[in-house]
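Please go through the sequence line and token line underneath and see whether the fold suits the sequence. See right below:
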Amino acid sequence: MAERSQLWVEGADDDHTIRHLLIRHGVDYDHKPWLAWIPSIEQAGGKNKLLQTVERSVRASTNRAVGFVLDADSSLQSRWAAMSSCLGDAGVNVPEDIPPEGFVGESQTYRTRVGVWLMPDNQREGALEDFIGTLVEEADPLLPLARESTIQAKIQAKKLHGANYRDVDEKKAVLHAWLAWQEEPGLPYGIAIRAKYFRQDSPVAERFVAWFRGVFELE
């Protein structure tokens, strides 16, 4: 049985981003050791591995809560269908579509409260970078420049610049270009949130924090 409630994420970037966002919302992940009511954040090592751990994690969390955060970077419906199948195997009844505010339910079989959040916002395809993009101030003048520069570097890669990032990683490349131009260049996502280069109160971030508090029944 899990020693405490758990939040499962795909990898290190998700872990650090979520942890530092929650710190800015008053969840004390700075306290060592963590207080008993704070869920541990576990890295699954990718989407497929996270899906594979769902039933086992729900079963091990009897009388505790467990949450899952993963990208909807191919198709929101197919990702929710895959998660729904795993949750069904763990005795959780799920709706046809994930709610915009994130899913919170219960496994009657294992007496476990269960939550699911599909990045970025349970409503569209995307990934962690789309979520983080909502934390950039809307009037920020550097983000459009970072986007234009990144795209131009890709377009001209064969001729001059050699920007060979994959098309699927364009949003990640844009965010890292933007981070490279901050006062302390190149901070990782989580540390940049902590340093307040990103805001913490976008509507999507507020919904995510409300979902987190709902899953783990935090006031």
User: Anything to note?
Assistant: The longest helix spans residues 47-60.
